[in-house]
Amino acid sequence: MHIHISTQDGVPIYLQIVRQVKHQIASGILVSGQELPSIRDLAEKLLVNPNTVARAYRELETVGLVEKRRTAGTFVAEGLSPLARREKLRMLSERMDGLLAEAHQMQVPLSDLIDLLNQRAKAFPQNSSIQNPENHAS
Amino acid sequence: MNQPILEIRDLKRNFGKKIALDGVSLSIPTGGVFGLIGGNGAGKTTLLKHTLGLLSAQSGSVRIFGLDPVADPVGALSRIGYLSENRDLPDWMRIHQLISYTRAFYPNWDPEYAETLRRDFELDPNAFVKTLSRGQRARAGLLVALAHRPDLLILDEPSSGLDPVVRRDILGAIIRTIADEGRTVLFSSHLLDEVERVADRIAILHQGRIQLCAPMEQVRSGHKRVQLRLSSSVSHFPPGGIWIGGEGSRHDWSMVAEAEIEAIREAVSLLNADILSIEPMSLDDIFVARTAGKALVAGGKS
User: Fold this and answer.
1) Please, what is the Cα angle at B219 between B240 and B251, to 5 degrees?
2) What's B128's DSSP letter?
3) How many secondary structure helices (H) and strands (E) does chain A include?
4) From B140's CA, which of A42, A136, B300, B301 has a CA 20 to 30 Å away?
């Protein structure tokens, strides 16, 4: 599991882990039943406090994306698809909030922003990665 | 949590006319990583030396494991692993001599662990300490600080002047130390990136005083950068309140607030201003605001 931590942008480290794991589940890089690294191993690999990793795992467990199995470890939860879709939309909403705030700051009206989004979508290479990766539930 | 591993009360220390510690009080809980941050000359090393009993308190008190480290150095030091800023090690010894020499001081020395560390750190047992590179010297210092599995690991600027590979070893050692139940790490640093990664709690020491001492998460969530636009032009931002620093001119100001979002909105509406954005801050920015931004609020808080 590859996770990149940055301490420059002010996002708490546990949240960076949560978001990237969510992202990897949503995009099918992590699949149902797959085991996540132990808290200690991930902490050593990322060079972050083990409590931070534990907090991220707890958060992921609370929203049902991962499950702890007694004596075993932490696994990506089974049968995730509907939740994954909701998570995807929520992740996109978060990104959009940032975009809206930035547009507001630059005094770009919403209608211009929507036009721009449509323009960009047309320019986007259609057949590459924008397909929906939802059908991995097997 | 549980009782503090280190309790410092109103500690003062002068060197001649220079005030190094100006009434420091600090309580460090058992377990976890405590990061002591401050610029050069802030008093970090002086503070750490008091916790080790290398300096005795001119006034105030220091208790480590509930003991006075000056009165009971054996009781205190046998449970501490210490890596000094200068990594003062006996230059004339070979690595294997350094290991057996240090071992004699610690009843809890774990020879297998020492050997594991020596191999991991690629230290040649026959090399003289004097001939080691900076990085290898830091690793040797870390080995002798860790191999008795201390209850408290104290590291003074452990990464300063080291390349990224050795810094990884040091951060890894900190993480492994606390991953073992109940152990505590106290480290000083001015590399805020690593403090942010590994510390549960931090204290900012500035000009011999503790400016801030809190859990990392609270420090992070409690500070925000607020861009705002005032309805009327001012030459100085009204000081005090939630604002601990900032800059700007006329209508446009970029301010650092120590408050939750609600309180920020309230303060801004009282100023008759618009919020352009509220952003989280990195520990780096928070540190600069807490130490360099003092002048701006000097009249406000006293």
Assistant:
1) 40
2) B
3) 5, 2
4) A42
> Rounded to two decimals, what is the model's pTM?
0.81
ipTM (interface pTM): 0.79
Alpha helices in A27-80 (DSSP H): 39-46, 50-62
Sequence letter at residue A57: Y
Which residues on chain A are in Cβ contact (under 8 Å) with B277?
A: 101, 105
The DSSP letter of residue B278 is E
Instruction: Kindly determine whether residue B283 and residue A11, on different chains, have CB atoms separated by under 8 Å.
Output: no
Sequence-distant (≥ 6) Cβ neighbours of residue A117 within 8 angstroms = none
Tokens of A126: 């259609």
- A49 CB neighbours in chain B (<8 A) are 32-33, 175, 178, 197-200
> Can you give the pLDDT of all 302 residues of chain B as single tens digits?
568 999 999 999 999 999 999 999 999 999 999 999 998 888 999 999 999 999 999 999 999 999 999 999 888 999 999 998 888 899 999 999 999 999 999 989 999 999 999 999 999 999 999 999 989 999 999 999 999 999 999 999 988 888 888 888 889 888 988 887 779 999 999 889 899 999 999 999 999 999 999 999 899 889 999 999 888 888 888 777 888 888 888 889 999 999 888 889 888 888 888 888 898 898 988 998 888 754 443 333 33
- Which residue has tokens 């097997």? A138
By C-alpha distance, which of B192, A28, A93 is closest to B202?
B192
